[in-house]
Amino acid sequence: MPADVTFPLPAPYGPGAVTARYQRLGAGSPLLLLHGIGHHWQAWEPVLPALAERHEVIAVDLPGFGASPSLPPGVPYGLDAVVPLLGRLCAALGIERPHVAGNSLGGLLALGLGKAGLAASVTALAPAGFWTEAERRYAYAVLGGMRIGARLLPQPAVERLARTRIGRAGLVSTIYARPGRRDAAAAAAETRALREATGFEPTLSAGRGLRFSGDLAALPVTVAWGSRDRILLRRQGVRALHELPDARLVRLPGCGHVPMSDDPGLVARVILDTCGRAERWDAPAGRVAAQGPATGRGPAPL
After folding, report:
1. Dihedrals phi, psi of 258, to nearest 5 degrees
2. Do 275 and 31 form a contact (C-beta atoms < 8 A)?
3. For the CA atoms of 139, 40, 56, 244, what is the dihedral angle to 10 degrees?
């Protein structure tokens, strides 16, 4: 069952605490899962069973999203503030330097944790932060439209729409290439999560002018992009590879911006393979042995 964890704020923000909702299951080396803007930890449910067979999985609601309260007044939602908070979250949960996988905003935060030396490996699914200014404005317009739509629809109307495939397409087709694979309860719940996300606008505001940069050559990094991503266009993956030349870039055929539901098996294999590469890491050489994905067919090159 989901639980809450509370931990103190770092000194620059004065006395206070942050509370986060999380789901924890499985056994093995820890794997932290970070969702995208306006979403919640349940976005990872399609891949949790496969991941929990190999790892202790911790899926969290980021501050101001899902069931996690907003950050205290005066605490920014930017990358430089949230990454240390996630480090403190891990410490409060008793995990140190976990593998990290994130989607969209969560992918950006996963890369930030890797840059800060707080991750054993990073899998970033369509991470934010590799856009041009025009691409950022486009993504913000799409996200803003989704937010307005979610706030205008009363929850009973959302639940009625979610009962049909056409209705679910209207609710979630912007983020999923295959919205029919979401069941009614999941589609209704994530629309409600988008409507009620108190961290939505502060996070968007903090992302203006942001471009990710940094050296992550000391750990395995995979950047993966859905071929049918309608929010962060897949050419941003090529740009990410230029910034992260030691990363592996893979394509997720037929997947949208939130690929975990569109192809759970492929997404799980990409994450597990990245975690496995970390466990085969050759520190003196700074590389891993040339091996294929841990199980099943491998991800296609972008």
Report:
1. -110, 90
2. yes
3. 10
Q: What is the pLDDT at residue 283?
A: 43
Cα–Cα distance, 230 to 234 (Å, whole number): 9
Q: Which two tokens stand for residue 270?
A: 């990409």
C-beta atoms surrounding 209 within 10 Å: 7
Q: What is the pLDDT of residues 217-267, one digit of tens each?
A: 889 999 999 999 999 999 999 999 999 999 999 999 999 999 999 999 999
Structure token digits, residue 230: 């309608």
For helices 184-196 and 155-162, the axis angle rounded to 10 degrees is 150
Asked if the model's pLDDT at residue 143 lies above 90, the reply is yes
Question: Would you give the DSSP letter of residue 217?
Answer: T
Compute φ and ψ for 55, nearest 5 degrees: -140, 160
Give me the pLDDT at residue 15, please: 78
Residue 64 token pair? 């101001």
Give the DSSP letter of residue 47: G
Positive or negative: CA dihedral 118, 62, 240, 134:
negative
The pLDDT tens digits of the residues spanning 170-190 come to 999 999 999 988 999 999 999
Residue 290 token pair: 């040339």
Render the burial of 187-202: b for 16+ CB within 10 Å, e for the rest: bbbbbbbbbbbebbeb
Question: What separation, in Å, do the N-terminal and C-terminal C-alpha atoms of the chain show?
Answer: 37
Residue 157, SS3 per DSSP: helix
Residue bearing tokens 């991750």: 119
Is residue 40 within 8 A of residue 190, CB to CB? The reply is yes
Task: Identify which of 85, 89, 51, 59 has the alpha carbon closest to the alpha carbon of residue 71.
Answer: 85
Main-chain dihedrals φ then ψ at residue 254, nearest 5 degrees:
75, 10
Max alpha carbon distance in the chain (Å)?
A: 58
pTM exceeds cut of 0.70: yes
